[in-house]
Records
---
Amino acid sequence: MRRARFAAGSACEDAKRYCEIFSRHLRKRLHLRVSFQSLTHFLRRNSPFDIGWDFWTSKENALPDRTIELLKQHRLALFGAITSKPKERQKRNLFPRFAARVTSTEARSYGCGSFSISIFCIRPCISFPNNPLNFIRREGAGFVEPKVDTVIFRQNTECLYCGVEWTNPPKESASSSGNSPADEAVFEGAGRRSRSILRIFTRGACQRIVRAAFEHAKAFGYKSVTICEKPNVIRETSGMMEAEAKNISKEYPGIALWSTNIDAQMMWLTKNPEDYGVLVAGNMFGDIVSDGFAGLVGGLGFAAERKHRA
């Protein structure tokens, strides 16, 4: 992790102001008890720690014990994305002695940080006043800066990111999925030139994340919860998420339930982002839409997330 230091002059004042905003944001939106003083102290005297791809490829451990001890000591960390690389690039980067005994599934799991056991994550995307990176929209002869205040609930342990994939899958994997004879014929024609992946949703996980989203909306006064999936095409998995949301929404009569398709949502977030309150999505679609909303408020640095175990 890079060291963070305050610069002199006006830049110092800007950094202090954003730290104050960020700490208040953490307290109110992520339910974390972080004071402005503790955050600025951490930024001035932080300790870099080892984690992720480089330490896995060299030390065969993506999360060393020394890092865990530092986390226990500081109880606060500024954490960026963990590197994950495609299959062929991954092979080139691994040490020869290590690559020979590592499968692509193992590499993908360590590279993506699958040591996380959180059930879902919460990412508030809020356009703080006076942030020059906030989204603006043309209106008439001028521009307006809509107030963005959206909280994305992203599933963290299921969907395509489970990494259940096959290279040259057996014919049985097509017939076991319940495909029609026509689909099986296409699969047969592909022979051993195909790749396949499972998109896994479970009813319990859908219920947990949707209920948590409604509870968050209720606690913070949001008027709507939006399911952002693709049930018109991915009917079983996205359809189940939407169906569970419809059932749970009956317990929250004051909060509207909306449903959007992920592709349309990415268009609408640059047209009317102020209309959305709490948004729920599976792992991959949540990854996409949360980064999209973060871009409206200055980037991922302004959109801290909390891993939630429920």
Note: Residues 167-197 form one domain.
---
Amino acid sequence: MSDGIILQLAVGRAHEALLDLSEPRARAWAQRWGLDYRTQRCRLCADRHFYWDKIALIQCALQVRSYRYLVYLDADTVVERLDVDPRSAVALPAAPIGMVRHAAPIGGMQIVHRNAGAIYVRVCPQVPAFFDAVWNDADCFDPFGWHDQAAINDVASRPEFDGLVGVLPDRWNSTYRTNEAPDAVVSAWHGASLDDRLRLMCGAVARLRLSEEAAPAA
């Protein structure tokens, strides 16, 4: 029985096209390390913005008692390093929930925030309560239309969850024109136009395929 799972979702044709590119490597990453893998391509909570489906999907996975680790990756991500154990992002002594900090240029300001495009979790008793609190925080202050991401950042700042959400190195969510890391484990294209995401992800997947085909057999 697996001790963890990698989750992805996409809603609508444009995002499903991204997931078609992302899924094979995320699935291979899960298989490499003995983790389960699940994609979600239909709505889980139709009464909210589809961004919230991410939280519902995570909550569902947290109900599986055997899971000690959970990774969520947006559809606009590509796993670069299949040889790196995804669980190592939140291995002790790291905080149970790990996210990369981004600075988004909005209105002439740099808005520093925990980016929810890649979330790494080591399950502990506080984790389900954290995501329940995020779900219940749908009416939080959200001037940038971030939805679940706004709630995650709000809840992570509460005293009762102090120390639960840690900041990961950029390599775990290395994002185009934001925090590109030379040693990326997961690359991402959050914030780019859908056309640019599709084009750049196609290039990344092709590059990785050629590199791995050229590598000598182990």
Note: The chain has one domain: 4-212.
---
Amino acid sequence: MSSDSRQLDIFEQRIRDLGNRGDLDHDQKLELSRAIERRDEILTKQLLPPKHEQERVKLYLQPISLREANALISRWHRHHQPDRGCHFCIAVNDGENIRGVAIIGRPNARRLQDGYTAEVTRVATDGAPNACSMLYGAAWRAAKAIGYRRLVTYTLPEEGGGSLRGASFHLIGQAGGGSWSRKGRPRVDLHPTQTKLRWEKTTDHA
């Protein structure tokens, strides 16, 4: 086993350990963020071709309807179904084809529904480099321009946060998780039920 593979196993185990805990203190949040960052660096090194072989593509922003965005979410997203509503949607294209989409709407968490907080509820791409960071950055600029003061989004503990860090989002800590199904209102869960990580960007640290 290579040195990178051993380090990858160590970081992934630490991410799982921290992700399964309850509330994290400040030092543990920093440790989790660093573990995710290092894990992402190793994965990127292993998965991406050499720089001279990587796809070089210039991306452009464009508006897109919820219907169109959901069609691409169905095709590209790993664990979420299309969204039912939104405030607005954004896409990136390479001059010919759409390469990624983002859906921005009302926060799912009721305590965040203060009228000044929006949530990036879906982001999906075909793997185009920098598409996710470009979408997150554009989502914040658009939300801020119409008066929102905070933009939140969530990732699974095993997912990377490189695109969010690239768009200057901050890792806040653990949030959510669990089933939507209740005794008096049974539902089939079509989303991951594990604890998630919340990221946000606000006008205080924009």
Note: The beta strands are 60-63, 88-93, 98-105, 117-125, 150-155, 170-175, 196-202.
